[in-house]
Write a structure and sequence with these properties.
about 300 residues, alpha/beta, five-stranded mixed beta sheet, 8 helices, about 10% strand, globular, Uncharacterised_pept_Zn_put, transmembrane, transmembrane helix, Metallopeptidase
């Protein structure tokens, strides 16, 4: 999925964090896969997510602007960090309208931190091993863009839409924060019908809602759409990325038997299914994972 070359990138609200040394406790050092495997083996559920170290900030973290590097859609098509910044612009513009239209809720943009190494957040210290995550306490999405290079390890391709799906999934949690849904989540729950799984599948679906509308979301500075319509091959790459991070796929890749009772994010099939629902439905209403018996 490509950006139109002539759109402009607003980098306000986007920062780059320099490498810092993670300090403090928690299981942040286990990383995303390690944290999930800890849960699968022992039943110990990390909170925010378990994926960030508790409380303390990282040493030596500073912020830089990316405004000099990321100016147009052409930059977004050639550089991962610029793609994330332009993706934020599109997501903010779309959800500003859609959230008010469907839910009567005023939208507030999420912050976006692009970092390497480790980063201090209001939820603790995130590391490059964590993978992308959303911190509700500071309403910000944190992404180490080197994570995208690991997609092949999970059985997915590192395409532009796969990257944007990951960003849009985290933005889905930001929308849940607006709607009060994050307060429903029991971080100790597990299983295919748990609140943890329902939340993650809904975030997948909300990512699909944005994908559905992305090529018609207009850059207010230029009057042209941020993005070109996705090709079928590009859509397939996003679905492959969703499948690659299914609980069953992760467990099997680790040499374990898939155990639905230990699922925390949803199976590969369900993650693809709910992403597809969002892409086809194009509305928040199409993403109700909470009222169905089993999402």
């Amino acid at each position: 999925m490509s950006f139109n070359d002539d759109i402009t990138i607003d980098t306000s609200g986007v920062n780059r964090g320099r490498r810092g040394a993670a300090i403090g406790g928690g299981v942040g050092g286990l990383g995303l896969l390690g944290a999930l495997l800890l849960y699968f083996f022992t039943g110990q559920v990390p909170d925010l997510g378990s994926l960030v170290s508790s409380g303390q900030q990282s040493a030596g973290t500073s912020q830089q602007s990316i405004s000099q590097e990321c100016k147009t859609g052409a930059d977004a098509n050639s550089k991962d960090e610029c793609r994330m910044a332009a993706g934020k612009n599109s997501l903010d513009e779309f959800w500003n309208t859609q959230l008010s239209k469907e839910a009567g809720v005023q939208y507030h943009p999420a912050g976006l931190m692009l970092y390497r190494g480790s980063v201090g957040t209001a939820c603790g210290t995130g590391s490059s091993q964590t993978g992308p995550f959303y911190c509700p306490s500071d309403a910000s999405v944190y992404i180490d863009t080197t994570f995208f290079n690991q997609l092949k390890q999970y059985g997915a391709q590192n395409t532009s839409l796969a990257q944007l799906y990951i960003l849009a999934h985290e933005w889905g949690h930001h929308i849940q924060n607006h709607l009060g849904i994050l307060n429903k989540i029991d971080h100790q729950s597990s299983g295919m019908s748990s609140s943890m799984v329902r939340s993650e599948l809904q975030a997948d679906c909300l990512a699909g809602v944005w994908i559905n509308n992305a090529s018609s979301t207009i850059d207010p500075d230029t009057g042209i759409p941020f993005l070109k319509p996705p090709t079928q091959q590009q859509l397939r790459s996003a679905l492959d990325a969703a499948s690659a991070v299914g609980d069953d796929r992760i467990m099997e890749n680790a040499g374990m038997r898939a155990n639905p009772d230990r699922f925390s994010h949803g199976s590969s099939q369900k993650r693809m299914e709910w992403l597809t629902r969002g892409i086809k439905g194009g509305t928040i209403a199409s993403c109700d994972t909470w009222s169905v018996r089993q999402p």
